[in-house]
Amino acid sequence: MAGLVALAALGLSACGFTPLYATPGVTPALSHIEVVVPHGRTAYLLSQSLDDAFAKDRDAPPAYRLNIRIAEHTFPRGLTVNNVAERYEGQLRVTYDLIDLSTGKTIKSDVVPVEVTYASTTQPYAGIAAQEDSEQRAADEAAQRMRIDLAVFFANRAKP
Fold first, then answer.
1. Cβ-contact 98, 150 below 8 angstroms
2. I need a surface site. Which of 31, 49, 90, 140 has the fewest CB within 10 A?
């Protein structure tokens, strides 16, 4: 098994494959992003997920600022004959601007759409828990998509 792994690693290195996070400047750039979000539960969850995804270096001053705007909507789906929803679809739309603090210029802007669903229930506390869980899942998904987008941006920027 070890020989197979070594052979695969040799093959990948010969073809010029470079892991995204091996590119100089990607990981340090991500860890020096200050995240600015509006007030609200989902915004707070997104902020926490982004700090984790970026492996934020709290001891170093930020080099970049990520300004975030959020739009959330919830839609009932699967209506019964009594017009009661069997599930809900939550849509989260995150718009962000990455600003280089040394120049004050916006260097990247994008929109990240996320959709999650959760089941309806007749028990009120279970419904609240399901909705809160869907907000956490949406924030985590948006954070991962933004991490990938920004890692690709910094990797392309680091290329000569």
1. yes
2. 31
Distance CA 133, CA 120 (A): 13
For the whole prediction, is pTM greater than 0.85?
Answer: no
Which tokens go with 14? 């010969």
Highest CATH level, class, for 19-158: alpha beta
Q: Do 53 and 81 contact (CB within 8 A), yes or no?
A: no
CA pair distance 94, 145, nearest whole angstrom: 10
pLDDT in tens, 56-73: 888 889 999 999 999 999
Q: Give the domain ranges of the chain.
A: 19-158
What's the pLDDT tens digit per position in 85-122? 888 899 999 999 999 999 999 999 999 999 999 888 87
Higher local confidence (pLDDT), 46 or 128: 46
45 within 8 A of 68, measured Cβ to Cβ: no
Give the span between the Cα atoms of 148 and 61, in whole angstroms.
22
Within 8 A by CB and 6+ apart from 75, the residues are: 88, 89, 91
> What does the alpha-carbon distance between residue 1 and residue 150 come to, in Å, rounded to a whole number?
35
- Using CA atoms, how far apart are residues 10 and 5, in angstroms rounded to an integer? 9
